[in-house]
């Protein structure tokens, strides 16, 4: 607990410093604790320290973990997933009206020991056959990069009677390394295709729609029942300075907001590059190692 508390303090200080350096309001930043591979007890501990947002990238781990976290918090009066957040008919129909937007707010709901509602993000590459399971616990799916996944998520959310917030994942790797092309059997991610991730710098398979394809994909999300368009997400390319990629993501986000003003979320930046992400307008920072420590032997 003390280790988590200490690391959380350091991360929050970094976020405040980065925001002030960029002449931004620190309160406009949301910390997302990337809890993949870590036990549910760590999530509960961070909840007690005021963290609200958590990210997972494997449904088979995340579903049971989310259930365990909510079971552990049930005695403190925390509602189960879906009870207050994803039901339709909530004010204004925009993400900001009914999704918690800050990770470092008050840890209580008015009395000691009553923790705030954990908000779950799915950040991994999502197979369509896992979509229904993911909508059962994730409030946000940040890794939407193809049309058929939009259709599947829409159907799954609608069947459950939930609303799921969606970020379009933007692939910036090819722009950073224009000589890299998808390898054998790997297709580019274009709306309308059931595509594998695009090969990025260093040849590793990574997901995301190309920037030119984001507007068309956004239109599909905006029209999809059970989904709401929250914004964009990206991972900085490997092996090159991250700032230019985050600047490109800012441009993609600005263009998206010109058509969809409510899609203000920019999920970018991790433990090693959060300062660059904040400088280029990130609103949500996905922090794992700096909070939990090094993960050993896990991809």
From TrEMBL:
Keyword annotations of the record: Pyridoxal phosphate
Report the residue ranges that make up the Alanine racemase N-terminal domain in this protein: 203-295
Which residues get modified to N6-(pyridoxal phosphate)lysine? 36
Region: Disordered; residue ranges are 176-205
Question: Which Pfam families does this chain map to?
Answer: Ala_racemase_N
Q: Which InterPro entries match?
A: Ala_racemase_N, PLP-binding_barrel, PyrdxlP_homeostasis
Q: Does the keyword Transcription regulation apply?
A: no
The molecular function terms in GO held by this entry are: pyridoxal phosphate binding
What the record says about family reads: Belongs to the pyridoxal phosphate-binding protein YggS/PROSC family.
Q: What does this protein do?
A: Pyridoxal 5'-phosphate (PLP)-binding protein, which is involved in PLP homeostasis.
In its UniProt entry, what is this protein called? Answer: Pyridoxal phosphate homeostasis protein
């Amino acid at each position: 607990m003390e280790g988590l508390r200490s690391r959380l303090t350091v991360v929050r200080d970094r976020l405040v410093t980065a925001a002030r350096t960029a002449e931004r309001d620190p309160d406009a930043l949301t910390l997302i604790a990337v809890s993949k591979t870590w036990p549910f007890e760590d999530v509960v501990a961070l909840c007690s320290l005021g963290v609200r947002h958590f990210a997972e990238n494997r449904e088979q781990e995340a579903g049971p973990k989310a259930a365990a976290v909510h079971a552990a918090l049930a005695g403190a009066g925390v509602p189960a997933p879906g009870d207050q957040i994803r039901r339709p008919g909530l004010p204004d129909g925009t993400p900001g009206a009914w999704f918690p937007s800050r990770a470092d707010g008050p840890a209580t709901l008015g009395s000691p020991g009553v923790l705030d509602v954990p908000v779950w993000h799915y950040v991994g590459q999502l197979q369509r056959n896992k979509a229904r399971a993911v909508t059962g616990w994730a409030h946000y799916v940040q890794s939407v990069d193809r049309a058929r996944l939009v259709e599947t998520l829409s159907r799954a959310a609608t069947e459950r009677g939930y609303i799921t917030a969606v970020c379009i994942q933007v692939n910036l790797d090819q722009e950073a390394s224009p000589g890299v092309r998808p390898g054998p059997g790997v297709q580019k991610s274009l709306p309308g295709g059931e595509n594998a991730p695009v090969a990025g710098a260093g040849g590793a398979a990574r997901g995301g729609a190309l920037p030119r394809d984001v507007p068309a994909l956004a239109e599909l999300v905006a029209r999809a029942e059970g989904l709401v368009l929250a914004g964009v997400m990206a991972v900085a390319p490997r092996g090159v300075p991250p700032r230019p990629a985050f600047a490109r993501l800012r441009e993609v986000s600005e263009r998206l907001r010109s058509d969809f003003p409510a899609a203000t979320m920019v999920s970018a930046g991790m433990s090693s590059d959060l300062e660059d992400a904040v400088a280029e307008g990130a609103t949500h920072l996905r922090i794992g190692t700096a909070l939990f420590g090094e993960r050993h032997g896990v991809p």
